Prior knowledge:
Elements: H1 8-55, E1 58-60, E2 62-63, E3 66-67, E4 69-72, E5 75-82, E6 90-97, E7 101-104, E8 117-123, E9 130-141, E10 144-147, E11 153-155
Antiparallel strand pairs: 1-5, 2-3, 4-5, 5-8, 6-7, 6-9, 9-10, 9-11
Amino acid sequence: MLGSKKGITPIVATIILIAFSFLIGTVVMAWGEKYIEDSADFVEGAHKMSAGCDAVEVHAYSIDSINQVCDQDGTFQAILENGPDIAVKDVQIKLIGTRNVHTAESTISQDMEPTAVQQVSFSHPDIGRPRQVKFTPKIEVNGNVVFCADKNTVVKTFDCSWT
Length: 163
C-alpha cells in the first residue's frame, strides 16, 4: 500500500491548482494596476483642465461702468479684457436677439495674454434687437484647447456711443 500512486495524485492536483490560481491572480493584479494608473491619469488630466478654467476670467471692458459692447446694422463689436492669471486662446461669442441666435466660434485675432485688452468685430445675420451676449473663453491645457463653459460672462446692455 505504501507504493500506491493514489495518494500522490491529489497532491499533484492541489499543486497544479495552486500554481494556476497564482498565475491568474498575477495576471488580474497586473491588469488592475494598469487600469488604476490609467484612471488616475484621466482624473489628474481632468483636474488640471478644471484648474485652468478656474483661473480664466474674460469680460467686456467697461468705461465709466458702461460695457463696451455694440451691435448695430449686422455688425457686432466689443472690447474684451482678460484677467490677470492665464492666457486665452480664443473666445466664443453667442449673440442672442429677439429673432435669432448667432454663435461666433473664433473671434479673437491673437491669444490674449493676462491683462490684455482686445477689440473683436464680426458681421452676422439678422438677429432682431440684441438682448444678450455671452463670452465663453477657450484656454490651452496640456496642448489641448479647452472650452471653459462654466466661466462665461453675460452682458445684457449694449452701448454704441464708443464706436
